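Q: Structure for this?
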Amino acid sequence: MRITQGCFSFLPDLTDEQISRQVQYCLEQGWAVNIEFTDDPHPRNHFWEMWGLPMFDLRDAAGVMMELNECRKVYGNSYIRLSAFDSSHGWESVRLSFIVNRPKEEPGFRLERHEMAGRNIRYTTRSYAADRPEGRRYD
Amino acid sequence: MDVDTTPMTDAVNLRDELEAVGIEEILSQLDRELIGLKPVKTRIREIASLLLIERIRKRMGLASGAPTLHMSFTGNPGTGKTTVALRIASILHRLGFVRRGQVVSVTRDELVGQYIGHTAPKTKEILKKAMGGVLFIDEAYYLHRPDNERDYGQEAIEILLQVMETQREDLVVILAGYGDRMDKFFASNPGFRSRIAHHIDFPDYADDELLAIAELMLRDMNYGFTPDARAEFVRYIALRRNQPLFSNARSIRNALDRLRLRQANRLVADLDHILTADDIRSIEASDVLASRVFGKGGKSAEAG
C-alpha cells in the first residue's frame, strides 16, 4: 500500500528534476531544507531521523540534491522526505514537506480492533513492516 | 529552456546574438573598471565567445557538455586576484554559465576540520552553499601540508576534486595564491592541475598602470590629485616599487589611505582657513612628499 503523507503524495513519484524545482522554490522563499528518513511509516511517527544538519544559506538546489543522492545511497530502501523550514518570525515551522524516496515494496497497515467494554471498539493501525526490528524492515 | 521555446534554426546572425547576451557591455565595463590585467581580460573574452557559440550550437541542436570553468589565479600580492574573482562570478552569471552567481570566499579554515570526521561535513557545507555560483579558495596551497601526512587538508582536497569533476555544471571553483607556492601545490596534487582548465597568471602592474589605479581609487573616494601631487606620486610609485614588501595595487591603496590622513591633518592644522569643496577634495604635493619613501629618515617621522 502506497503511503500518502505530505505534499504531492497522491501524484506519481516526483522525478529528480521535479524535486529539484520544488527545492529551488523553497530556497527562493528563504526556507531551510532538511532531509529526513525513516523505516517506520506510521502516520503518527513524526520523528524521522535527520540526514545531516538543516541546510541554511543555500542558493541553489544542486546542494540539496547532492545530499539527497548521498542519503539514497545509504537509505535507498527507506522513506526519505524533504521538509522546508521557515525561520521567519511568526512562522518558525515547517512550510512544506514531501516524500522523495520510498521502499520498493510497501506492505501497508493492519487494522486492529480492540473490543472494549460494552460494544465499543478501539482501532489501531499497525504497519506490517514495523513488525520487524528497526533497520531490517524492508530487507 | 531556450531550447524548447525557440525553433531550431540553421543560420544565425552573430551580431544579433551578441547584443542579446550583452557581452560587449560586460566586457567594456571590465575594461573600464580594471586597469591592466591583459591576460585576464583576454581569457574572459575567450570564455564569453565560447558562451556565444554554445548558445548558437544549442539552438542548432548541436549539444555539448558544460565546459570546465574551474580556474586558478596566480600572481604576486596585490595584483587583483581577489578583485577579479569577485567580479568574475557576476560575469559568469550574466553570461549564463552559473545559475545564481553568488561567491563563497573561503580559506583553509572554512574547509578543513579540527578532528577526525569534522572535515567532510565542513567542506560539504561550503560546497553546498557555493552550488550555483563560484567557490573562491584564497591561498589554496594551505590546504596541502606536505610536512604532515595526517593533515585533514587532504580529505578536503579529495572531496573538492570529486565535486569539481562530477558537478561541473553546478559549481565553478577558483583557486588563488602566489605563483611559486601554487606551482608547488599543483605539483603535489596533480589531480587539481588537470581538473582546472584555466590557469591565469596575473602580471605585476607597470608604473603607469599603478598611477591609473591610484587615480581610479581616488575618484571613487571623491578625491583628486593636484597636478603637482600627481607628479610627485609618479615619483613615489617608482621609489616604492624598489622597497621591500611592495605589493602592487594593495601598496597603492594603503598609500592613498595615508595620503587622506595627512590631507585631513593638514586641513585641520589651519583652523582659520575657510574650506571650499575643492580644498577638501584635493590632495596636494606636500601630502605626498611627507611620505617616508622620499626621505630616508629625513623630512618626516610619520609612517608611510
